[in-house]
């Protein structure tokens, strides 16, 4: 088979797998949004059946043959071409898939399934000991996975690389430390400043919130013809297939900002999904997300850099006040200040922009110590509480609010947390660069004209798919190596504007 | 491999296929109920990918080996055992699947896809000639399918058997003729009788209709924990997976009875689906529907024998009047008469109980002539119009209201139509037998107590799955060979009650 035939066959295989993955995405979306309660047990089997099919396809030895026929051919001569990128990334996916023996893949899937159920119960009962054996098993299996995947530095690198290609402990640790120190500085600087006034009390009826979300998501550029907004317990975004990016939210009638910023966040994910998964490249690496951090950069940029900005509320406040009369007396400045307030707390998902990253540092350092065996599972609760006091200045009253807080470890997702902070960093880098490329960006945001920003992100990030590895992608988009600098500047400027420091 | 191991392996394969089929069902449900418009093109590919996987599984030669190991073993000694039925039906499914070459299966699927799109356009444009070549292709391919499947009598039998195992032209033609003649007699008898008064005029707000449907579907026994009611252009019922039977409806604010009887009809389907697809047999023939006619018998029984009865409206009218005050002045008798009125018309899906079956006779006779090549495609419009005049006493003003009316032929579903009338017949047979088994059935219906009827159907039909072939199943349930007699008696009695003939 010549290289061109092999490449076409490879891409057809990739696209067919994407079609099956679409069905899997839909099974999962439906489970969280639509599924009748009696059907949950059956749904697990359906998800398992398609997962097994996809795993077998991903390990198909024919892929190795087709890849070998492509590699070193004319198709890979220009490393910056879509063809070369597709071949490089399909090689990465294939090598990863075949390195993990089916027995280990099955053991991990089962441990994750059992672990997540055990975690849910343990968190509810505040019983770390009930979860500890599952965590030990998941750590053992994850270390085995790291060994079969291989690494240059240390085992954790292999796990991190699955979420964030090319990242290592050596690469992310200093950036995370920089974010932690910046947060500490900002918190110290604002310690004596009076907090901004809160927004007017509710009720903010769910119907009004839904109407406002329909307006804002459409205005940000999410086409109703290619998306849906539904309600689920845990808000999320998912690309089901081409032209089908769905988001969910949940309504708190006492505080409209939860659903509002949540929906803007998920809209950011959905805009990226629709942007990379266009018809030309759908189902191939060029039509896929570059990484978890790049995905998070898109949600965070729209949520924090855009929707928590003062210009944004100049545009949005009148629309919000149409739904909620109690906002009519507010100024855009007052909303900007209220939704940008810093309030250290124990819960990561409720954290503000400034204190969010220290939560990540805490988790990164602990999961790294666990993988390294520097920390025993039995000692995790104590270590969490100590580090929480040291980093956040707060000690959780119990493990449910401490080391049992997040779902990630219960599914064996070690190496995931750093992608949140990297996403925050990339968001700030990209927004700073967009501001230079679009000189009147603030005025555009204040006018509710988000199209120039979306178009810039489309060209710089969305349409690139997996053409470049994440850091290189952001570097190419911004013209400089990504650093924590833009994010730290953004946080300091916001603290100055809100707290007058 | 011994017979027991082979049987267990066979059933595991069948269950895994059912899990994949669940994903396919969900893709289809979602397409009709939830899918954003931009995603339709992609959805076709997703459905195609899973269809191809299921087809390959259905033809897997290993199935033949496992079946051979089971057949003639102790497992098949008692022909009435679930094991023997599973083996017999899996053999039927496997033999059908392998007889159809992949090239023919693909050609049929493509012709059906193209045909349906061409039909939609042709009906809209009232342009039979645009559809005719597709119909010719579909007929050719269907005749080829009949040849490879084989038959004892004639080619049409092989197609009919796919929908209704064991049925033949020789078997259904006389029954359909009996129904046609009975309808002619009834129409003649009521020709001079004054029609019943219509129901009060609308509006019947959609919200009130939805509230009423939630009440009635739950009351009929459809558990909310295992079902959903959504809105779609074409109402339907689908079993997604275990514990997950979904129905849809659409609301006409001028006439609440359309959504009402439609939802009761779909509830009948859903009750059957949940009844046969219990945990013990799900994913195996014993957990599947016996046939299309048996499925239709369940929807028709609840729609016609139950929900269009006088006792039912004694219970239901007060609930309906709570939603729609204009009904407060009606009597149950008045509603019974209005919803049971006979009104010959051109449209099958709008037909009343009496004139419905003649619509089927018309279609059956024409599709039989087409398959036999007794009728050329070019002559179909004229033949339809002549037969419509002869059977219904009406000539369509155009082909859109004539031979382009139904979707079935555009997808190559020749042999499907008779199952509607067989379903009506089985519904009447079963309801008559249920009335003998539950002496106070009318009083129960008038009290809104549907549990005894559902329990009787559960034992007699639902839980039997594919244990028996359709006619034998109904015979076992009723204690006598199914005939058109009960349906004809039902229609005559209703005409007598409404028109005083």
Features:
homodimer, 501 residues, mainly alpha, Neurolysin, domain 3, three-stranded mixed sheet, 20 helices, 3% strand, globular
Could you explain the architecture of this structure?
- The structure is a homodimer of 501-residue chains.
- Chain A is mainly alpha-helical.
- Among the domains of chain A are: 3-99; 206-344 and 437-480, Neurolysin, domain 3 (Orthogonal Bundle), CATH 1.10.1370.
- In chain A, 64% of the residues lie in helices and 3% in strands.
- Chain A contains 20 helices and 3 strands.
- A 3-stranded mixed β-sheet of chain A has the order 1-3-2.
- In chain A, a hairpin with a 2-residue loop joins strand 2 (237-241) and strand 3.
- In chain A, helix 14 packs across helix 16 (418-437).
- Chain A is globular.
- The model of chain A has no long low-confidence stretch (mean pLDDT 96).
- At the A-B interface, helix 1 and helix 2 of A face helix 1 and helix 2 of B.
